[in-house]
Design a protein that fits this description.
Low-confidence stretches: 1-9, 121-125
Strand content: 15-25%
Radius of gyration: 27 Å
Number of helices: 16
Shape: elongated
CATH architecture of the largest domain: 3-Layer(aba) Sandwich
CATH topology of the largest domain: Rossmann fold
Strand order of the largest sheet: 5-6-7-4-8-9-3-13-12-10-11
CATH superfamily of the largest domain: P-loop containing nucleotide triphosphate hydrolases
Distance between the termini: 69 Å
Structural class: alpha/beta
Largest sheet: 11 strands, mixed
């Protein structure tokens, strides 16, 4: 980063080994795409801005775009670039700054740097086309769609010698554009002619070498050599060398290559940051959104492989129905003789048609305008016809029509999703999952897991809190069925009053 002379005046931009490695990959002939993933605080934003200014100075008539997740991050990136220009009289002679448009132009020729925000309406709706000589995308995990990435990525393929660079930390949903990009690069590294090397670290001379103890850098290259990934991160569960402990700050330091990131600063982050944010920002591990109420670790600890027997058992069924805006979930609950509750969910969701949006996490995508109630009713009938005894069916009367199922002999129980019902139900469900006497056991269904761990909370001034969507925006409908059904399931197949509707 910027160095200083004996008078304290900043004179040089000094790159540490990890940034030199990224810069080397940027300028290697033939590269088209570079993904660099590393924890926050390791110089990503400052390096991006410097890289853009260098490109503007050295490439005649360049068009350099920096894509940020939102207006605030775009402003931060632009301030760094402006600082470099204004700190050097020599640079000011060659470059001029347009603050209102967040653009820096060359005084001779047509070259420019322009900072874009993904949440800008025109960008989000792909009303702008780009033809960059260099495209830089910051914190791709925070972009709410893949429009900017796709537009800039397609732009660099129009002519040879152009490049897109993505620098980001891990996010909370591997199904997003960043997760899919990372998965693609790792997969390409294992193909014939590709390269995937784990456990790399810088030695005392700044050279890369294999180090199974301290190495936390993974390098992956596609067989063509055009796509390269550099990933600094802790080892996750299932790694051949064993998973890292995120509370071992000396180990976390191995994934933070910048010299200014110290063990003490990592420890301070552990003490001051929410757990999920600490995992993402300091360990570069994929984790839940910050406001998720149920920790993924707590839900995963209940994965015993438990499943509901195919027939011969009594089950409670709960429906959370939505025609359009959300998914629809049906969950069965079996109260095991030992007092444990085993759930089994099935989730439908409307197919996402908006450009750049990931498909919702579900068991079945519906390529229609609505989720028809007849589909849900047929699924409930199949539970009964398959050999299980549906002793009651709970539903929210706001949208779901119980008439047909009532006529067929199902015992229907109204469960309005009002604060009066959902606040105590949310607390009971939280205790049933996270309490010292957790009652749930499950088989690890990834759809149910995604819905449960995506639940945040909505605070109520007098009543307390209830489950609601978290900032990740993930579907939570199967989690809501757990909320509606926990206490009913624990009551077991006892005589229950029907409902009036």
């Amino acid at each position: 980063m910027p160095d200083a002379d004996e008078h304290g005046d900043k004179q040089h931009f000094v790159l540490e080994p990890h940034l030199l490695l990224i810069a080397w990959e940027v300028f290697v002939k033939g590269r088209v795409e570079l993904l660099a993933m590393l924890p926050k605080g390791n110089g990503k934003t400052a390096f991006f801005a410097a890289l853009a200014v260098f490109h503007l100075l050295t490439v005649r008539n360049c068009s350099c775009y920096i894509g940020a997740a939102d207006g605030e991050q775009a402003g931060e990136m632009f301030r760094f670039a402006v600082h470099y220009v204004e700190s050097s009289p020599a640079l000011k002679k060659h470059l001029r700054i347009g603050r209102a448009q967040k653009i820096i132009r060359a005084r001779r020729g047509e070259g420019f740097i322009k900072v874009l925000a993904s949440d800008n309406t025109k960008v989000a709706n792909k009303k702008q086309g780009y033809n960059p000589t260099l495209a830089l995308i910051d914190e791709l995990h925070a972009h709410d769609n893949d429009n900017m990435y796709v537009d800039l990525r397609s732009g660099v393929t129009k002519r040879p010698g152009r490049l897109i660079v993505i620098i980001s930390t891990a996010g909370w949903d591997p199904a997003t554009v960043l997760g899919e990009l990372l998965a693609r690069m790792l997969r390409q590294g294992t193909q014939d002619g590709g390269e995937l090397v784990e456990g790399l670290a810088f030695d005392g001379d700044g050279e890369l070498s294999y180090d199974p103890v301290q190495g936390r850098l993974t390098v992956t290259r596609a067989p063509s050599g055009r796509s390269v990934g550099l990933i600094w991160a802790l080892r996750e569960k299932g790694h051949p060398l064993g998973a890292d402990d995120p509370t071992d700050f000396e180990t976390v330091k191995f994934a933070n290559p910048a010299s200014w990131v110290t063990v003490d600063s990592i420890a301070d982050g552990y003490e001051s940051l929410p757990w999920a944010r600490y995992l993402r920002w300091r360990c570069n591990l994929w984790a839940q959104s910050d406001d998720a109420k149920i920790p993924a670790e707590a839900w995963d600890a209940l994965n015993t492989g438990a499943r509901i027997p195919a027939d011969g058992v009594q089950v409670l069924v709960v429906v959370d129905y939505a025609r359009k805006s959300d998914a629809t979930a049906v969950t069965q609950f079996w109260l095991r003789p030992d007092g444990k509750v085993v759930p089994e969910s099935y989730v439908w969701a409307l197919q996402e048609t908006r450009t750049g949006r990931p498909q919702p996490v579900c068991h079945e995508l519906i390529a229609e305008r609505t989720i028809r109630q007849s589909i849900v009713r047929d699924h409930i009938r199949s539970i009964r016809d398959g050999g299980r005894d549906v002793y009651a069916l709970a539903f929210d009367p706001h949208l779901f029509d119980p008439e047909d199922l009532t006529d067929e002999g199902f015992l229907m129980i109204e469960f309005p999703q009002t604060d009066v019902r959902m606040v105590p139900a949310s607390k009971a469900t939280f205790e049933a999952i996270c309490g010292s006497d957790a009652v749930y056991e499950h088989d690890g269904d990834p759809v149910l897991r995604a819905h449960v761990t995506a639940m945040g909370v909505k605070h109520k001034p007098e009543e307390g809190w209830r489950f609601s969507k978290s900032e990740s925006g993930g579907r939570i409908d199967a989690g809501i069925t757990l909320t509606m059904g926990t206490e009913l399931a624990l009551a077991g197949p006892v005589a229950m009053p029907g409902c009036e509707w």
